[in-house]
Design brief:
The complex is a heterodimer. Chain A contains no helices and eleven strands. Chain A is mostly beta strands. In chain A, strands 2, 4, 5, 6, 9, 10 and 11 form a seven-stranded mixed sheet that branches. In chain A, a hairpin with a 5-residue loop joins β7 and β8. Chain B is an all-beta fold. Classes of the chains: A mainly beta, B mainly beta. At the A-B interface, β5, β9 and β10 of A face β4, β5 and β10 of B.
Amino acid sequence: AAGVIQSPRHLIKEKRETATLKCYPIPRHDTVYWYQQGPGQDPQFLISFYEKMQSDKGSIPDRFSAQQFSDYHSELNMSSLELGDSALYFCASSLGMSYTGELFFGEGSRLTVL
Amino acid sequence: GENVEQHPSTLSVQEGDSAVIKCTYSDSASNYFPWYKQELGKGPQLIIDIRSNVGEKKDQRIAVTLNKTAKHFSLHITETQPEDSAVYFCVAGGTSYGKLTFGQGTILTVHP
């Protein structure tokens, strides 16, 4: 079965540079979520989108922005990168905005900021 | 906001033994409690979930219990196998779309 696809899987950037992560949800899933997982930490919710509209916002820095496109894929844009932004970034998708629907996570994108 | 506490942080068992992971949550409005397994370099995968109208749920070697009054929930794995070795996260949700609050994770190691 098709899963959530994230790209790139690995990304290395310098401080103050910009990075863009992409997420392709499971076919027919219309809701995407972004999570950030620091080394040895639990995943932290950043932001979510339903039908191309932002549905909820968590601990996402102002330097980050995201959007969902008409084909339901999503992009997370990160500017003025800092060392502390080094983390695994997970995208998850679900069908509909259910409070209790199962979230399917991608394999993650590992961002390293030097 | 919601706060989820998970214990223990590491758990080492022999193959065939049982493993128990316990969690507490703070927001009484939470009503969805999934458990995720994360293997090295991979994304979290749902292994079982329980909703607030149920006290216990079992799926083969895995069972979860929920005590809403005490705001406790637990994961029980019986007859553990080496492939059960991973990080396990308890999660509380149901108060916002997809905004799951993860526990700190438990590193489970099953020794052959």
